Fold this sequence. Notes:
Blueprint: E1 9-14, H1 20-29, E2 33-38, E3 52-57, E4 83-86, H2 88-96, E5 100-116, E6 132-145, E7 151-156, E8 163-166, E9 171-174, H3 186-197, H4 206-221, E10 225-229, H5 234-247, E11 251-257, H6 265-276, E12 281-285, H7 287-294, H8 300-322, E13 325-329, H9 334-340, E14 367-369, H10 377-386, H11 391-394, H12 414-433, E15 442-456, E16 459-472, E17 480-481, H13 488-499, E18 503-508
Parallel strand pairs: 1-2, 1-3, 3-4, 4-9, 10-11, 10-13, 11-12, 13-14, 16-18
Antiparallel strand pairs: 5-6, 5-7, 7-8, 8-9, 15-16, 16-17
Amino acid sequence: MSLNNKLTKILIIDFGSQFTQLIARRVREFGVFSEIISHKKIKINQIINNNIGGIILSGGPLNVYQNDKFKFDKKILSLKIPVLGICFGHQILSKELGGRVKKSKHREFGLATIKKVSNSKLTKNFFNKDNSNNVWMSHADQVSKMPKNFKIIASSKNSKLAIIENTKNNYYGVQFHPEVTHTNKGKILLRNFVFYICKLKKNWSSKDQKLELIRDIKKQVGNNKVICGLSGGVDSSVVAQLLSKAIRKNLTCIFVNNGLLRKNEETQVVNTFKKKLRINLVYVNAEKEFIKKLTNISDPEKKRKIIGNLFIKIFERYAKKIKNVKFLAQGTLYPDLIESRSVTGSQTSKIKSHHNVGGLPKRMKLKLVEPLKFLFKDEVRKLGLELNLSKDIISRHPFPGPGLAIRMPGNITREKINILKEADYYFIKALRDNGLYDKIWQAYAALLPVKTVGVMGDNRTYEHICLLRAITSEDGMTADFFDFPKGFMQSISNQIINNIRGINRVVYDVTSKPPSTIELE
């Protein structure tokens, strides 16, 4: 990629925060290129003469005195490149420059109010008229003493040094997370760092991203054959189209019907990709194989691993038939990776195994191609538009790889699958009919592992509880429930109960993420 400006990008040093890619995503939103590298891998010569205009130190789960668990080369701070430390990065910056960090008397997790103490380029237009702002805190340690030549820009009740700076050397530290949507005007603070302090100019777009990803695919794959695991969702569809642009002759897409799809999904996928987009597609009906393997399995992690392993076995089986296939492409996104494992090798907490990440077998005959693994869902949608995919594909709600298996906690049965398919169908149809589908990030129906007593036509029933979930989100990392117009829930509840035998109660999930995840399992 040829960029005109000498200083062209922001380098983000990752210390294991689950929000690190959010920082990179914000920088990309500003139209500036960003690169993430683990604190374990960063070397000083990677920064010198590499067009780095600014450095951001991410948050992380450690404390700054666990020297055996993280690395940081202090020489990085002497390169005369502006540095912004976020949360753990703020503490590292302070400690390395002579300040002190200690365990907080009062931990801060969630929203906190900070108040302006001094003016700063970093906080231009960041504070409200009363010189305060609400920010998202997530820390048990805090900076207790500033390094020399620093001054306080803002304080909170429990963090006196919530924002500090040294303008002479362009060092800035914030104890909160400006990259998350919960921090009011967080984007403004990051924008100020990128443009006012680092003085970078816009140099990045969806078109640049598309071209870079196509180049990356060609470089990784070469002249080898690739199979693409196609589900028909946004992610795998974008991957298929990217691969088609990069290596069309050597691409075979495989769509596996695992028996856990939405109603009529297999027909829609085949029609779209085989007939409309003319992509080389192989349809595999493996419904019986998957259901047999999942019989009497109730543990969600086991479900995911069984499904992930079986997908790979089927892909490898068909790779043998195609011959000389060396790569498997799939639509893994960054939120999938961050919940399953660390992307950069830094310390992060595992939330759950995604079937195409933590659910994969340790030994695979095929090498992975995951061109979207550093992107978020809305970025993938923009990329899809750049690749000329239709709005019908781009606007689809996310659907998990394990499918309905993780929307029915407990044992999986054919009866429950059939009931759930119908419930999901009625729910999604009602959203479309009422003009609500595109206002919601993700919506689905689930069956809870408990039956309740009901009464229909003067007769006792003992049937399933259907849980409905609809959330709003920007990137899938955080989410809130959708507040439906009055009367909608009553209407859809009546439709589901009146049309589907096996359900006698409908409930609505009003939990945000965090503390819950978007899917039930």
